[in-house]
Design a protein that fits this description.
Shape: globular
CATH topology of the largest domain: Rossmann fold
Number of helices: 15
Distance between the termini: 39 Å
Number of domains: 2
Mean pLDDT: 94
Strand order of the largest sheet: 3-2-1-4-5-6-7
Low-confidence stretches: none
C-alpha cells in the first residue's frame, strides 16, 4: 500500500517522526513523504532539510505559500495548495494519505484527495483550539477523513460526536511523545555556539504564534508578551512563529525586541527535533501559545505559561498556567512558574497525551486497513437526536 504522508512545516514533522519510521519499517507499506508549505520557504528555514537530515527521502514537493501573510494571501495559498496536491495525486496515486492537525495546508491536502476517492487518515483530530481558525479546519478534516488517530479518550468521543463510526477512531496518544526521553542529546557546547544559549543555565523558551481569529490584534498581543519577558530579565530563546495570518507583525516585533535585549535574548527559525527537545528539556519555563507547551512540556515536567486563546480548550497538565494577554498577568505567571514551589508541585506529573507506541500503532492500523471498507462512510447520529 502506497502511503502518502503530508508534512507542511517543522511543527508537524517533529510530531511525525515515529509515524514515518514505523510506516517505513512495515513491509506492507510504501512510505511516500509529500513536503509543502513552509518546509520549502527559505524565510522559514527551508525545513525540508530536517526530513532528509533524519534519513528520509522526500517523494514530492508542493509549493503553495505566497509571500504575504494577509487573510487574502492565506486564502490564495490554500487554493494553490489544493491545486498542487491535486496535481501530485494525479501523478502519484497514493492508496491512502496521512495528514496531521489543523493547518490550512493540511486541510487543502485532504480536500484535494476527496475527488480522487483517496482514503484519508487524520492524526490529532477532535481537539479544540478556540483562538485559531484551525479549529474549523481540524473538524473539516475529520469529516473528510476515513481513519482517526486521536490522542485522548476525550478527543475520541468528540470525533464520534461529529458522526464518525467508532471502529474508525483509534486512541493512540500523541506521536511526538514516542521515544521522547530517548532522543539523542545534543552537544551543549555546540548548541551554545550555534544558538547563544547555555543549556546548563536558567532560561525561558518562548514561542508566540498569531491567534488567527484575532489576527488584527497580533501586534498589540505580542507587545504584551515581550514586555512581560523583558521585565522578568532572564535569558530567552525565541523560536519564530508559523506561517499564519499576521505572523510578520509578530516576527518583526520579536526581532526588534531581541536586538534591544541582545545580551540576553536569542531568536531561531528552527531548532530541529533534537535541538528543540533539548531546549525544552532544559528550560526553566516555556512561555507563549505553542501546542508543544501543552503536549510535550509535561513529559519533562517543565512549567508552562500559556498565553491567550490560541490553545484554549485543549486538555493540559498541571504544569500549564493559562493567562490572558496582559503583560502584568503574564509576568506574574512567569514568576510563579519559576518558583521552587511550583517546580516541586510537578513531582510525579504524568503527561495526559502519552499512551506509548503511537507511531507503531498507526502503522499497524494502516497496514491492515481495507480500502473498500474505509471508503464506505456513513454518518452515525447520536441516539435520541433525530
Amino acid at each position: 500500500m502506497k502511503v502518502g504522508l503530508v508534512t507542511t512545516s517543522r511543527a508537524d514533522w517533529g510530531i511525525y517522526t515515529s509515524v514515518a519510521t514505523a510506516i517505513g519499517a512495515d513491509p506492507e507499506l510504501d512510505l511516500r513523504i509529500y513536503a509543502g508549505g513552509s518546509h520549502l520557504v527559505a524565510a522559514y528555514g527551508r525545513t525540508a532539510s530536517e526530513i532528509t537530515g533524519a534519513g528520509f527521502s522526500v517523494a514530492a514537493e508542493v509549493e503553495c505559500l505566497l509571500a504575504s501573510d494577509s487573510p487574502e494571501a492565506v486564502a490564495k495559498s490554500t487554493a494553490l495548495a489544493v491545486a498542487g496536491f491535486a496535481q501530485l495525486y494525479s501523478r502519484e496515486r497514493p492508496d491512502i494519505i496521512v495528514v496531521l492537525g489543523d493547518r490550512f495546508e493540511m486541510h487543502a491536502a485532504a480536500l484535494a484527495a476527496v475527488p480522487f476517492v483517496i482514503p484519508i487518515a487524520h492524526i490529532h483530530g477532535g481537539e479544540v483550539t478556540e483562538g485559531a481558525m484551525d479549529e474549523a479546519l481540524r473538524h473539516g478534516i475529520t469529516k473528510m477523513a476515513h481513519l482517526h488517530f486521536v490522542s485522548t479518550e476525550v478527543y475520541a468521543a468528540r470525533v464520534r460526536q461529529l458522526g464518525e463510526e467508532g471502529w474508525r477512531v483509534h486512541v493512540v496518544g500523541a506521536p511526538s511523545l514516542d521515544g521522547i526521553s530517548e532522543v539523542p542529546a545534543v552537544d551543549a557546547a555546540v548548541f551554545h555556539e550555534k544558538h547563544g544559549v547555555d543549556l546548563s543555565e536558567r532560561y525561558i523558551l518562548a514561542t508566540f504564534h498569531p491567534a488567527t481569529v484575532q489576527w488584527r490584534e497580533a501586534r498589540e498581543q505580542v507587545a504584551e508578551v515581550l514586555d512581560a519577558l523583558e521585565s522578568v530579565a532572564m535569558p530567552v530563546l525565541f523560536t519564530m512563529p508559523n506561517a499564519d495570518t499576521a505572523n510578520a507583525a509578530i516576527r518583526m516585533a520579536i526581532i526588534e525586541r531581541a536586538r534591544r535585549c541582545a545580551a540576553r535574548w536569542q531568536t531561531v527559525e528552527s531548532l530541529g527535533r533534537a535541538g528543540y527537545l533539548a531546549a525544552l528539556r532544559s528550560a526553566s519555563a516555556v512561555v507563549g501559545n505553542s501546542s508543544s507547551g501543552i503536549i510535550e512540556a509535561a513529559s519533562f515536567r517543565v512549567p508552562v505559561v500559556d498565553i491567550g486563546d490560541r490553545q484554549r480548550g485543549r486538555i493540559a497538565g498541571a504544569n500549564v498556567m493559562r493567562v490572558r494577554v496582559d503583560s502584568q498577568a503574564i509576568e506574574a505567571a512567569i514568576q510563579r512558574a519559576l518558583s521552587p514551589e511550583f517546580a516541586a508541585s510537578l513531582t510525579g506529573l504524568e503527561n495526559p497525551y502519552y499512551a506509548g507506541g503511537a507511531g507503531r500503532r498507526i502503522a499497524q492500523v494502516l497496514s491492515s486497513a481495507d480500502r473498500s471498507a474505509l471508503l464506505a462512510k456513513r454518518f452515525v447520529d447520536i441516539q435520541g437526536s433525530m
